Amino acid sequence: MERHEAVLAATRELLAEEGYTALSFSQVARRAGVTRQLVHRWWPLKASLVSEALFGSGVEPWPTGYTGALRADLHTFIGAIVAYGSRPDVRAGVAGLTADADADTPLPGLVEGFLVPLHASLVALLEANATRDSIDPVLTLNTIRGAVVMHLIADRTPPDVVVAHLTETMFWALSPR
To answer: Tens-digit pLDDT profile for the chain (177 aa)?
Structure first.
């Protein structure tokens, strides 16, 4: 397990330093102190390695203790997503995965390590705030995630501006009418 985690840590470090395109199995293996063959055996595709490095471990727990003050809770939730998405390794990895992966590319960690806990955090927020029942948490989460990715990666909007704007937008959308 130590070698496995060393490879994932090396991948995150190299993503932050070199970016997705420059990342190679040889570099990762050298940094982690393992063989290139071992890295290839565990992850046959670079996209799979990067996915597990970003989503399978090293993700901070998402907030769950919401207060019931919708604007503040949204700020906490969106702030956590933006802070995560602002990390250099995540920026480089998500941009690379977007370009490199297709519908058939296995992305270890994405669902169970990232999306399920993030969804649970949003559901806790919605329940704490008694938002409208017609709000679909999956679509709401996809809306927030998509906006964060576009702002942080595509147009490089400053993180504090993204948090403030998405907090206000989602407050308007989720406030009981």
So the answer is: 799 999 999 999 999 999 999 999 999 999 999 999 999 999 999 999 999 999 996 677 899 999 999 999 999 999 999 999 999 999 999 999 999 988 888 899 999 999 999 999 999 999 998 876 778 999 999 999 999 999 887 788 999 999 999 999 999 998 876
Name the DSSP letter for residue 62.
Answer: P
Q: Cα(176)–Cα(155) distance, rounded to whole angstroms?
A: 32
Tokens of 53: 């490095």
pTM, entire model: 0.91
Place of tokens 């702030």: 79
Query: Six-digit token pair at 107?
Result: 């992305």
In angstroms, the CA 34 to CA 29 distance is 5
Choose among 148, 10, 171: nearest CA to 81: 148
**Cα 139 from chain centre:** 16
What CA–CA distance (Å, rounded) separates 87 from 60?
Answer: 12
Q: Which residue, chain included where needed, has tokens 């927030």?
A: 144
